[in-house]
From TrEMBL:
This protein's record includes keyword Membrane: no
Cofactor dependence: Mg(2+)
Binding site for 4-amino-2-methyl-5-(diphosphooxymethyl)pyrimidine: 39-43, 74, 112, 141
Identification of the protein by name: Thiamine-phosphate synthase
InterPro entries: Aldolase_TIM (IPR013785), ThiamineP_synth_sf (IPR036206), ThiamineP_synth_TenI (IPR022998), TMP_synthase (IPR034291)
Family matches, as Pfam families: TMP-TENI
Keywords, comma-separated and alphabetical: Magnesium, Metal-binding, Thiamine biosynthesis, Transferase
Amino acid sequence: MKREDLELYFIMGTSNVPPQEQPIYILEKALQAGITMFQFREKGPHALTGLAYEQFARQCQKLCHHYHVPFIINDDVDLAIRLGADGVHIGQDDLPVSVARKRIGDMILGVSVHCEEELQIAINHQADYVGIGPIFPTSSKSDAQPPCGTSFLQEAHSLHPELPIVAIGGINFTNAHSVFQTGVDGVAVISAICQSKDVDHTVATFRSLSRINK
Ligand code: TZP
Ligand code: MG
């Protein structure tokens, strides 16, 4: 993967989208507007299952492919292999990084980390990038750890300048600048895009905030 792909990483599942909206349309608007990576994260109370889950994943994959944006699957290594996704993202409660790496070969592997020890394990097992967060309070992940602020981002980036890092959790226009200032490669967002009244404007604003700090 290119580290620029992390600049504006959009994550979405059915539960993240307001009831009057169609998830696939939000993804298409976000792709048209210029998101740089997409993660399929089908979790929570209204999550699809079975065939509907897989069909929705395939639809999202097709759209991402059309816009040349990497398509990453959250947690579900089997689905990622079956679909030939561009990559997988796992957290600390999923399968071990070493096992995921063996199973997916050279697909992109992203790992959520919260401390230096987890970071080092991810690096040792050839994670392609790490996600750090929640940086700020978030209502999109019910089992999120307490917000950690930007200091660990700064530390991780200075200790491992070669490692692609994306920040996640509660990131919006007001606080994105403080995140980009740490030198990380990008921001991952759910609600900022899923709940946006103007996805074009939202995407363009995040991308210009990123450029200001380059
Ligand atoms: N992991 C840590 S925070 C989070 C995930 C998946 C949710 C981010 O969503 P939002 O709406 O951008 O705060
Ligand atoms: Mg997970």
